Amino acid sequence: MTEAAGPLVSARDLSIRYPSRYPEDRALPVNGVTFDIPQGEILAVVGETGSGKSSLAATVAGHADTAEIGAPMIHGGSLRVLDYDIRGISQRKRDKLTLRVGYLPQDAGATLSSRLTIGENVAEPIFSRDRRYDQTEAGQAVATLIDAVRLPLSVMNRFPHELSRGQRQRVAIARALILEPVLLIADDPTSGIDVTVRGAILDIIGDLQNDRAFSALLVTTDLDEVRRVTDQVMVMHRGVVVGHGQVDAVLADPRHPYVEGLARSRAIGTVRESTNAAR
Q: How far apart, in whole angstroms, are the C-alpha atoms of residue 59 and residue 85?
């Protein structure tokens, strides 16, 4: 399949809900969102808990309308990912799509199989697709990514419980990229990780994106994290977009109280940094 000439992701007035028999649970976690992700670019989605970021990430990753328990559903509008219409997509097309989309869910390092070695965890998507895939080639691909996420090759023979949380998250990044996707969806990749290594995780994603030229949707709660990988941000608040564009431009002209609060917090942080630097 040839790549689309337009953006890899295009959402128009997209609304998302979760199935429920109770009317009070039928609120829309994502309500009328419009955005594009051009080829080779990263869009950061920023917002507090409950803003709809994770629901949006899962939907763009192809995990909506699957009839699985807890899966989101497209309620209105349209969403195209890699030239596939996600609303009403067939299982055959979904399978083709997800082969080309790397998905890093929240706390992805905790989802690694405890029964498999690190190398086997990273290689698992390859053999799920093709059980007869050459093991030597798979091993080389795994080793390349383990090195790319700045882990020693010796971890390939270890098990997840033998690694730190930050190391497991790096392994999860390698696993998400093992099929060489053209689009990466990373849902809060630094959540729960020690503050001293969060920057390194984001730098790894940024370096890999520069090297492999994939597009990405990066979900985060921290605006400062955005600047390490992209200058394009979409701010969400209670399911709607309240700011969208270049980071400095969005903060310089806040058109919603939540964005205004982000700008104020950023200004306070900048003053503190300047004060500490002057001491």
A: 12
Q: Which range, of 17-31, 48-62, 189-203, averages the lowest pLDDT? A: 17-31
Residue 153 to residue 212: CA distance in whole angstroms: 21
- For 56-84, b where at least 16 C-beta lie within 10 A, e where not — what string? bbbbbbbbbbeeeeeebbbbebebbbbeb
Residue 214 — pLDDT band, cuts 50, 70, 90? very high
Name the residue among 238, 244, 231 with its Cα closest to residue 55: 238
Phi, psi of 143, rounded to the nearest 5 degrees: -60, -40
267 — pLDDT class (breaks 50, 70, 90): low
- How many other CB atoms are found less than 10 A from the CB of residue 189? 27
Average pLDDT of the chain to the nearest whole number: 90
* SS3 at position 6: coil
For the chain, give every domain's residue range: 9-100+185-278, 112-178
Q: Of 92, 158, 78, nearest to 122 (Cα)?
A: 158
pTM for this one? 0.89
How far is CA 239 from each of CA 96, 148, 160, 275, rounded to the nearest angstrom? 29, 35, 35, 36
CB atoms within 10 A of CB 102: 23
Residue 92 pLDDT > 90, yes or no? yes
Q: Which CATH architecture has domain 9-100+185-278?
A: 3-Layer(aba) Sandwich (3.40)
